[in-house]
């Protein structure tokens, strides 16, 4: 499998009745890669992940996981997957170590090997001192790290992570990121969905942006920013109130490559933010505040999928 993609999809479709959740996508995920799915709610990310995880059958198209057909070989594939669901489903009746050793037994590991593997993983996720404690008193970040450890208990070829840091505070998020980065350094293949653009930039070697069941962009975080945004973004706030932003946007026309007026500020996309700010002042405009920042994946995401909230 070293020179073969761990995930290979061509024309992959998933329908629920008359609704098409995934509308014919192509993708490959290479061994050792950290691959991300981005997209608004209803874009098809979860449906795609469920097909990859062999818990949902494709309606149409070709899908191979670890070189196998998930329809015929679902049990064999699942034995080599690690899954970290969006919501922690740890067993509160078991202590921290037992949550790992019990799960390991499902994969045929002996009691001794299960305990050895559990202790190694608890050390890895920095929970060794909590091994004999109950799950319930753990913080959200600790539970998330324990869930990630459980996903690794069978030494999987491929780990699926559904929004791995949703609901965590910044400190806990960064610790989870650090552990996932360590997994990537070990050569573990990661596939994740996330709503955090900074998380995708931190963790993903490559990602796709999905919208309405289709892939609308694919590449590394840096290449997507270079393709779909500018090097810098200028955030301008004017003191005249929210209703004046449309008028100011008209006066800024021609500065930079694109202008995006928002209710509370105006975003001006330019390759040189300082030059753009100088031009703003040359036109006699006096914003109350100016911020020049680099473009991010969030700018790309909103450019590709829009700002309209999807329920």
TrEMBL record:
<keyword id="KW-0813">Transport</keyword>
<protein>
    <submittedName>
        <fullName>ABC transporter</fullName>
    </submittedName>
</protein>
<keyword id="KW-0046">Antibiotic resistance</keyword>
<keyword id="KW-0472">Membrane</keyword>
<dbReference type="GO" id="GO:0046677">
    <property type="term" value="P:response to antibiotic"/>
</dbReference>
<dbReference type="InterPro" id="IPR003593">
    <property type="entry name" value="AAA+_ATPase"/>
</dbReference>
<dbReference type="GO" id="GO:0005524">
    <property type="term" value="F:ATP binding"/>
</dbReference>
<dbReference type="Pfam" id="PF00005">
    <property type="entry name" value="ABC_tran"/>
</dbReference>
<keyword id="KW-1003">Cell membrane</keyword>
<feature type="domain" description="ABC transporter">
    <location>
        <begin position="7"/>
        <end position="237"/>
    </location>
</feature>
<keyword id="KW-1278">Translocase</keyword>
<comment type="similarity">
    <text>Belongs to the ABC transporter superfamily.</text>
</comment>
<dbReference type="InterPro" id="IPR017871">
    <property type="entry name" value="ABC_transporter-like_CS"/>
</dbReference>
<dbReference type="GO" id="GO:0005886">
    <property type="term" value="C:plasma membrane"/>
</dbReference>
<keyword id="KW-0547">Nucleotide-binding</keyword>
<keyword id="KW-0067">ATP-binding</keyword>
<dbReference type="InterPro" id="IPR003439">
    <property type="entry name" value="ABC_transporter-like_ATP-bd"/>
</dbReference>
<dbReference type="InterPro" id="IPR027417">
    <property type="entry name" value="P-loop_NTPase"/>
</dbReference>
<dbReference type="GO" id="GO:0016887">
    <property type="term" value="F:ATP hydrolysis activity"/>
</dbReference>
<dbReference type="InterPro" id="IPR050763">
    <property type="entry name" value="ABC_transporter_ATP-binding"/>
</dbReference>
């Amino acid at each position: 499998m070293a020179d073969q993609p761990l995930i290979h999809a061509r024309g992959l479709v998933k329908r629920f009745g008359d609704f098409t959740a995934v509308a014919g996508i192509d993708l490959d995920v290479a061994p050792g890669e950290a691959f991300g799915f981005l997209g608004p709610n209803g874009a098809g990310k979860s449906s795609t992940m469920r097909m990859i995880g062999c818990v949902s059958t494709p309606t149409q198209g070709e899908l191979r996981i670890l070189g196998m057909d998930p329809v015929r070989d679902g049990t064999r594939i699942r034995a080599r997957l690690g899954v970290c669901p969006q919501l922690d489903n740890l067993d509160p009746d078991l202590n921290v170590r037992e949550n790992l050793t019990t799960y390991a037994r499902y994969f045929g590991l002996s009691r001794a090997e299960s305990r050895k593997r559990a202790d190694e993983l608890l050390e890895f996720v920095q929970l060794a001192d909590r091994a004999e404690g109950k799950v319930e008193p753990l913080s959200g970040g600790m539970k998330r790290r324990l869930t990630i450890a459980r996903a690794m208990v069978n030494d999987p070829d491929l780990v699926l992570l559904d929004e791995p840091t949703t609901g965590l505070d910044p400190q806990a998020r960064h610790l989870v990121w650090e552990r996932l980065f360590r997994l990537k350094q070990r050569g573990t293949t990661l596939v994740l969905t996330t709503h955090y653009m900074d998380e995708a930039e931190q963790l993903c070697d490559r990602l796709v942006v999905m919208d309405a069941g289709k892939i609308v962009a694919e590449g590394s975080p840096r290449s997507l920013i270079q393709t779909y945004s500018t090097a810098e973004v200028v955030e301008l706030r004017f003191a005249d109130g929210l209703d004046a932003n449309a008028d100011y946007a008209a006066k800024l026309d021609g500065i930079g490559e694109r202008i995006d007026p928002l209710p509370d500020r105006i975003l001006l996309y330019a390759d040189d933010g300082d030059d753009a700010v100088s031009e703003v002042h040359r036109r006699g405009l006096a914003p109350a505040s100016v911020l020049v920042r680099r473009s991010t994946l969030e700018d790309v995401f909103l450019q590709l999928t829009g700002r309209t909230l999807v329920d």
